[in-house]
Design a protein that fits this description.
alpha+beta
């Protein structure tokens, strides 16, 4: 649940960016999952776009990826409030070598 920084002037502070996802890829072990959740619909759209264009990650089933993980306090609160939760799950894979 990264902070959505909902005000437009604060969007530059959002953690999930193409640059940060590339950085995460560099430090993650092969086969490691990248798991993200958000209750903020606008930020969830941005996250989806960033992950869609991320090289070195393969989409996996989010429901399965989060199945054995505990819910965060924020997630439980948001679910009680009836907020939708957007879950994203990716797996680090090798970037194909260019010919």
């Amino acid at each position: 649940f990264p902070d959505p920084w909902p005000k437009k002037r604060h969007h530059k502070r959002r953690f999930i960016t193409a640059e940060n996802v590339r950085g995460l890829w560099k430090i993650m072990k092969a086969g490691a999952p990248l798991l993200i959740k958000s209750d903020h619909p606008g930020y969830a759209e941005v996250i989806a776009e960033v992950l869609e264009g991320a090289e070195g990650f393969e989409k996996i089933d989010a429901q399965e990826a989060f199945r054995d993980l505990p819910q965060t306090g924020f997630e439980m609160k948001y679910l009680r409030e009836g907020r939708g939760i957007h879950a994203f799950a990716m797996l680090k894979v090798p970037i194909p070598a260019e010919s």
